[in-house]
Amino acid sequence: MSSMDQGEEKGLKISYEIKLLKWLLNFASPYKRFMVLSLIFMIITAIFELIVPYVTKIAVDKYIFPSWREARFLDVREPFDSAQDRPQSNDENKDKRFENRIKEKYPSAIITLDKDNYLIDLSRVSKEDRITLEKLGIVSEERYLVINLEDIELNRRESVLSIIKNRPDIFKSIGGFFVSNYSSLKKLSSEDIRILRDQEINHLDRLALYLFLMLSAIFLFSSFYTYLLHYSGQRIMHRIRVGVFSHLLTLPQPFFDKNPVGRLTTRVTNDVNAINEMYTSVLVQFFKDILVIFGVLCVMFNMNRNLTFFIFILTIVLGVIALLFRKRLKSVYRDVRKSIAKLNAFVQESIKGIMIIRLYNRERENSVRFRDVNRENYKANMDQLFAFATFRPIIEFISTTAVALILWYGGLSILNLDLTLGALIAYLAYIRMLFGPIVELAERYNIFQSAVAASENLYELSNIKPEEREQGRGLEKVHGALEFKNVWFSYDGGDWVLKDVSFSAKPGETVALVGLTGSGKTTIVNLILKFYEIQKGKILFDGVDIRELDPDFLRANVSTVFQDHFLFGKSLMDDSSNGDEFARVTDTEELINSDGSSISSGEKQLVSLGTAFSKDARFLILDEATSHVDAEMELKVRELLKNDNRKRTTIIVAHRLSSIREADKIIVIHNGEVFEVGTHYELLMKRGIYYNLYMLQSEVHRFSS
Asked: From CA 615, how far away is CA 566, in angstroms rounded?
């Protein structure tokens, strides 16, 4: 493939993905306010989640451990004190200038112990200066508790002063301050320590309250956005399912001939659920995860650049691995959804035909076929499992490596005085916050791939051209005349099912179609109802080509009863609400008032007949409409047809020739061609196909009786 062809293919793919995204967002547009609110609540939640570890760091470094340390500053001298002095190195000069700058910059944070020794409050020193002080070895590792009585409330001052006076071995008075090293505080009772450190305890109490409020806010805002996400997701899923199902009902009949019921059921159920997962777990949540990752990296970078750099490298490696798995996961999820659709279709068809399977002892063969279909689903799921089993452990390995790196490098940094204990604790919390969203992003990537495969299926289904309706015209008055003129038809464009078929039916006339199974009788009915388009010839309805008529108008003026019945009402009364006369004649009033939960096929067929008779249509088609009823009930139906005062034009498709003896015209179809036309007695006189069929059925009836 040339580079130009590859570019065109890539451009078409991008264009297709954009169209697919627009199609999905179209369903979400009515709920964009909920999505925006969810995003706002997520951002607030993410900000609070980022603050919590940093508050912990402040509590540890500033209030839990005393921040005063001993520092030894040398007197700053000029580069040459005297002629005997050697020139000092540039490094020594820099160190001395730094020491001098610290004393000038933080005078209130320094207490003089003697000529060269000082105490310095590192909590009031900038991060850069603190690190430099520790690296130069100016400050010691020993911590000190410094008490300034002027900073203590009056009601506590006497208690503090009493403890200090009682323990002169621990506290020393230096320039108005009372000082004790941290290790000596172990000699005091816990109550004394609590009184001495009451100020730090108050700060910790305040920080704990802040943490509680932030955690409560995280709980509330996360609850809000979770509810809004799932509410909007359910509404979006409802819209998609209604839209897909509504579009499904408008598709032409050839589409349903080529697609199993189970596959279409999977589209409306499983595929829509997969898209709902994408809306609720991926679309908005993705922005929060990105915000958390970016915020964590910024905070970590501010605390320690070198350590954050290593973590950032691991994050990039993880992103590269995710990209490598992208194509594989997309292909795997598409195969899984296809296999599920096939499995659903096979199971549904098997359960629907369970009686036939048992009747012909086909359980073993059906189980073998099921194993083949199930094996395909098993293989697709194993491919998915393998991809997931390699992808997830890699993420876990990188996450564990990052924690180990922080413990190792952070521990060394604490020993080298480059990192505080509070910062290390915050780092461990931040690393969980960093890799938590990354792991979730991997999970959501799996959901996203599944949703993409489902979206492609639904998008392709929604783009199938619906049946052309409301484009033709109607007739002011329907008389019920029908004529086939040299009609040729093929389902697949190859083998002709109907070959040069011509016949006519006058208004109010009863025409019967008979013939062997597969001769094309039901195809003629489907063509009349405009379920398929003919390739050659014309079909005239009241003298007008049905290609010019609107399918809705045509079907509204034709009542049809098929051998395979479908009750679409909530109860049988809904299906036969206007069939009072039919119910009275056939003694089915009690049946119609039932809920139809346990009636037989023949009873359902009677309800379908009642629905057809109640429809005010000038044209009636009965395709094996009495195949499931007994002879007595069939006779009543024939009498009702004969005495129908509306004089409908009736097309009857029947294998039981006794039910069409009184038809005005009988048309014998054989191998898609019209072989004989006439009344019952005319066809018997011809001694052709009809005569042979009639005699064969008579012999069978006489033998069975």
From this structure: 16
Q: In Å, how far are 481, 532, 669 from 489, measured between CA atoms?
A: 21, 9, 14
Sequence-distant (≥ 6) Cβ neighbours of residue 171 within 8 angstroms: 147, 164, 178, 179, 180
**Residue 668 in contact with residue 675, Cβ under 8 Å?**
yes
List residues bridging with 178 in a β-sheet: 147, 173
Give the pair of three-digit tokens for residue 248: 């499904």
Check: CB of residue 483 under 8 Å from CB of residue 366. Answer: no
Q: Predicted confidence band at 540 (pLDDT cuts at 50, 70, 90)?
A: very high
Superfamily, domain 3-30+226-271+310-462: ABC transporter type 1, transmembrane domain (1.20.1560.10)
Ordered DSSP codes for 227-255: HHHHHHHHHHHHHHHHHHHHHHHTS-HHH
Q: Token pair for residue 460?
A: 């392709």
Query: Which pLDDT tens digit goes with each residue over 194-206?
Result: 777 777 777 788 8
Cβ neighbors of 457 (< 8 A, separation 6 or more) are: 267, 271, 337
Residues with Cβ within 8 Å of 217's Cβ and at least 6 positions away in sequence, in order, are 44, 45, 48
- Say how many C-beta atoms besides its own lie within 10 A of residue 31's C-beta: 19
How does the average pLDDT of the chain come out, rounded?
A: 76
Structure confidence at residue 78 as a pLDDT band (50, 70, 90):
very low
The residue type of 500 is D
Write the DSSP symbol of residue 344.
H
For the chain, the domains span 3-30+226-271+310-462, 482-704
- Cα end-to-end distance, the chain, whole Å: 74
Question: 482-704 belongs to which CATH class?
Answer: alpha beta
Closest to 420 in 3D by CA, of 136, 123, 203: 123
pLDDT in tens, 655-677: 777 778 888 899 999 888 999 99
Q: Of all helices (H) and strands (E), which one includes residue 68?
A: strand 68-72
- Whether the CB-CB separation of 384 and 336 falls below 8 Å is answered with yes
Question: d(Cα 673, Cα 658) in Å, to the nearest integer?
Answer: 23
The length of the chain is 705
Q: Is 647 left (phi over 0), alpha (psi -120 to 50) or beta?
A: left
The answer to which of 348-362, 403-417, 470-484, 608-622 has the lowest mean pLDDT is 403-417
Tell me which H or E stretch contains 55: helix 32-58
H-type helices in 353-362, by residue range? 354-359
128 falls in which pLDDT band (50, 70, 90)? confident
Name the more confident of 104 and 593. Answer: 104
Q: What is the CA radius of gyration of the chain?
A: 44
Q: Would you say 185 and 193 are in contact if contact means Cβ atoms under 8 Å apart?
A: yes
Q: What is d(CA 126, CA 143) in angstroms, rounded to the nearest whole number?
A: 18
* Separation of alpha carbons 474 and 470, rounded Å: 9
DSSP 318-342: HHHHHHHHHHHHHHHHHHHHHHHHH
How many Å apart are CA 330 and CA 52, to the nearest integer? 37
589: number of Cβ within 10 Å: 12
Torsion region of 500: left, alpha or beta (phi above 0 gives left; psi -120 to 50 gives alpha): left
Question: Does residue 390 surpass a pLDDT of 90?
Answer: no
At residue 187 the predicted structure's pLDDT band, cuts being 50, 70 and 90, is confident
Q: Quick one: what percent of the chain has pLDDT higher than 90?
A: 5
A 10 A CB-CB count for 128 gives 8
Between strands 619-623 and 558-561, the pairing is parallel
471 vs 91, residue with greater confidence: 471
pLDDT given at position 566: 59
Give the number of other Cβ atoms within 10 Å of residue 66's Cβ.
21
Q: Residue 72: beta bridge partners?
A: 117
Other Cβ atoms closer than 10 A to 33: 10
Residue located via tokens 């990192």: 419
Per-residue pLDDT, 220: 92
